[in-house]
Amino acid sequence: MLAAIALTTLLAAAPPSSPAAVPIAEAPAAWAPAVAKAQESGRSFQKALQARLGAALAQGGPPAAIEVCATDAPRIAAEAGKAAGVKLGRTSDRLRSGANAPPGWTRASLQAAAGRKGADVQPLAVDLGSNLGVLLPITVGSACLGCHGPAASLQPKVKEALAARYPADRAVGYAEGDFRGFLWVEVAK
Ligand code: HEC
User: Fold this and answer.
1) CA–CA separation, 118 and 97 (whole Å)
2) Residue 101 C-alpha to ligand 1 middle, in angstroms?
3) By CB neighbour count within 10 A (0-12 exposed, 13-18 middle, 19+ buried), where does 52 fall?
4) Which of 28, 133, 140, 149 could cysteine-pair with 178, CB 3.0–4.6 Å?
């Protein structure tokens, strides 16, 4: 008990490992154009990814869509980022793909949001010097459960496809409304 208190005090006193994040709603006015650009590029990435995922699901069901997702999600992120002159991606505290590992500046915010409801997590801005980091929360919806829902409820073929491609998958067991991760954007200030 005492040891636990001592450890908690120590951790609380430790310097933050990432720059401080502020809710977008409270960010300095000078950041507004960069924030708007980040939100806009985030929206176009989400739209393109959803369209691709929707088409793949309609065509071959979840097992085929897993293959599409694995190759196309990173490509779509790179394209959306390039078109807008920003860097962006998706990350999570419970990763499926190691390719989506969190950039250092997102880690403290991810830790703080882990296990919460998506609606309880605010969009955040992080001062990265000449760049602004923007974190937009991603919430689990019903359309996500076929691939991110409780393991027992996944189609056997989905389980197989996930196990083959992502042996260290931590992104199952979610319920609708859960915080799933962040869409992160790095944009020039
Ligand atoms: C057809 C199966 C499938 C569906 C449906 C699906 N995902 Fe995924 N998801 C994947 C796969 C495969 C990956 C890993 C490849 C990638 O996208 O980077 C992934 C990765 C992610 C990531 C990146 C972090 C990580 O763990 O690697 C997030 C965030 C995410 N999904 C959120 C969602 C949300 C939110 C929905 C619903 C709107 C959803 N997914 C629907 C299969 C799916």
Assistant:
1) 20
2) 13
3) middle
4) 140
